[in-house]
Write the structure tokens for this entry.
Amino acid sequence: MTIFKKIINKEVPADIVYEDEFCMAFKDIHPKAPTHVLIIPKKEIPSMAEVAPEDKEILGHLLLKAAEVAEQLGLKEKGYRLVINTRQHGGQEVPHLHIHILGGRPLKWPPG
Ligand code: AMP
């Protein structure tokens, strides 16, 4: 079981900023920006490489909620970045789909 599934099950504590039937958002334990939150589906999808047409609603829900959570965190005016690391070359460490919400400082482009 992944660490994120344990967070969903409340077996591992997390600083949860949003939760509903389909997703959960919590603070990243090793923040890479002043604000760094992860939003994850409760469904166990390993990565973007495994999404299926049936995941259309949950993927749309995640993006809409990411925007709402970013606003709730005070990031809307100046902006923020959403990142989905995918598999090895994407730098994905936890094999449970997640969107990073990063903000609170200007972010460089392109990423390394
Ligand atoms: P990724 O490299 O895209 O798979 O990102 C995984 C992220 O999960 C990293 O930024 C980690 O800091 C974060 N992370 C790992 N374990 C935890 C945890 N228990 N609570 C919160 N964030 C975590």
Observations:
- The CA atoms of residues 81 and 108 lie 10 Å apart.
